[in-house]
């Protein structure tokens, strides 16, 4: 038996000794099979070229749709670039996969509001992504002066298209573990006050402050939560040795923040939904002197989330979190097809690294036993 259940803090002399401490036993007599609407991933990095071709099937075999991030090198800034990138994704799909990439634009201080308008009117983009400059991977062309984006904000507000935000300041004077909370105070609150009709998604929320902000700001504000932030805290990255495959941005925070994320995700509340932030890097770039931030979770993200929900008795809310809330916020219908998960008495085998030539991409290891196996899609 693990030391404490996922989402519940240790008591007495109990200590956190790694990801496995978040696991809990599951009663095999309680449930054997689960059928839910096919899920969507509302925050996904596919990269481009050979790496995209290698990792795309991991998402397409499980998710019906995914909101694809635009921080390529060079980034996807214009509607034309988004349409071209979408075509590259569709062309790379194996024939038997039914998967729809939903495109985003990378917001810069020079983004043309008219181009954003046309991209929306032509159905090319589903959202616009705001990266504070130098806050994460390929964010060098992000925004420093937030007054420059007012024209784009007005267009998004007019059409009801969300602004997806990487919610961290990039100020070196601010501790990396405080950057989300500071961003909310310095940047997000002023943006929302100036444009109260704007739909906002606080991406990959990692803190109690982020959860509280979303809960306090009504139906026009939402947040994505990743599978890995439900399972790891900062000890998992740093205690007992540096683990580069747990390093991501925003970085995992204290255990108390992880507990708040689990409460939000499993609450059934419509303001929270799955965005895996699955972000592949070749291992040679992760295991480097200055390693890249990003966790590649696509192959096991749904099993991870199902296990977290199961461990605290919240499976009744799983479908809302992974299949319904996000679609509703983005003004889309929930998927009609379903997917089936089966509970296995023996832990399921974790996915092996994905290889391309001499390179490989390590898949997120949650450090707990996963018992929910994704078996098949079920047509409507």
What string gives the helices and strands in order?
EEHEHEHEHEHEHEHHHEHHHEEEE
Overall average residue pLDDT: 91
Number of strands: 13
Shape verdict: globular
State the secondary-structure class.
Answer: alpha/beta
Strand order of the largest sheet: 2-3-4-5-6-7-8-9
Low-confidence stretches: 1-29
Task: Explain the overall architecture.
The chain has 380 residues and is of the alpha/beta class. Helix 3 packs parallel to helix 4 (150-159). Residues 1-29 have low confidence and may be disordered. The longest helix is centred in the middle third of the chain and has 16 residues, at 179-194. The chain has 12 helices and 13 strands. Helix 4 (150-159) links the parallel strand 5 (125-130) and strand 6 (163-165). It has helices spanning 49-60, 79-92, 113-121, 150-159, 179-194, 208-216, 227-231, 234-238, 255-266, 283-286, 301-311, 318-329, and strands at 33-37, 40-44, 65-68, 100-106, 125-130, 163-165, 200-202, 221-225, 272-274, 338-343, 354-356, 359-361, 372-378. The chain has an 8-stranded parallel beta sheet.
